[in-house]
Amino acid sequence: MRRDVFQAIADPIRRDIIGLLAQHPLTVNAVAEQFNISRPSISKHLKILQECGIIVMNKQGRERYCHIQPNKLVPAFLWLEQYQQLWEDKLESFENYLEILKNKKNE
Amino acid sequence: MRRDVFQAIADPIRRDIIGLLAQHPLTVNAVAEQFNISRPSISKHLKILQECGIIVMNKQGRERYCHIQPNKLVPAFLWLEQYQQLWEDKLESFENYLEILKNKKNE
Questions:
Q1: Closest Cα in chain A to B5
Q2: Given A10, A70, A83, which is nearest B6 (Cβ)?
Q3: Which long-range contacts (C-beta less than 8 Å, at least 24 apart) are formed by A59-63?
Q4: Is B83 in Cβ contact with A70 (below 8 Å)?
Q5: Cβ contacts (< 8 Å) between A15 and chain B: which residues?
Q6: What is the pLDDT of residues A46-59, one digit of tens each?
Q7: Which phi and psi angles does A65 have, rounded to 5°?
Q8: Over the stretch B24-64, which tens digit does the pLDDT of each residue have?
Q9: Reduced to 3 states, what is the DSSP secondary structure of residue A25?
Q10: How far apart are CA A31 and CA A21, in angstroms?
Q11: Which residue in A12, A32, A59, B56 is deepest, having the highest Cβ count within 10 Å?
Q12: What is the ipTM of this complex?
């Protein structure tokens, strides 16, 4: 399996973990408590997020804290952003089409 | 496997196919010709993209054309966009830190 931002965000649990950590760093236990899935599953997702560079682990005392690295999301954002014009154009042409229909109805 | 935009863009070949079709619709053969991988592999990727709603197939004569549905990329864009402030803040604090270092050096 590739380890990049696109793989990191492909899974809904991993997206939810990112959402949690975007608020503030959390211990592995605190992350696990938020999900109704097995602890090994959560550990696996955290490991993948680490390997993708999206989170880093910092040891503080006896606890390991997961910190998000938001800049690692940027390549996926930029990849999608290049198509923004495309969906905006399509939306605009759909709106124009609705306008034409509306005008025809009012004629 | 889930069938959503995040799965669609998780694979680099599928992202390249999206990039191709963003320029103009292409036949299945024309898409396959652009890649150095087996035809069944390409068909599988096109099927996944279809199931994710990112492309639709239109029959014109004997040919099947793949058309991109750019609006289907929007949910992934919006998901990433919500973290834009987070990476911009981080970048800004990094720039501030560099500025402080520079000023210290010049003192």
A1: A10
A2: A10
A3: A63/A27, A63/A29
A4: yes
A5: 6, 79
A6: 999 999 999 999 99
A7: -105, 135
A8: 999 999 999 999 999 999 999 999 999 999 999 999 998 99
A9: coil
A10: 8
A11: A32
A12: 0.86
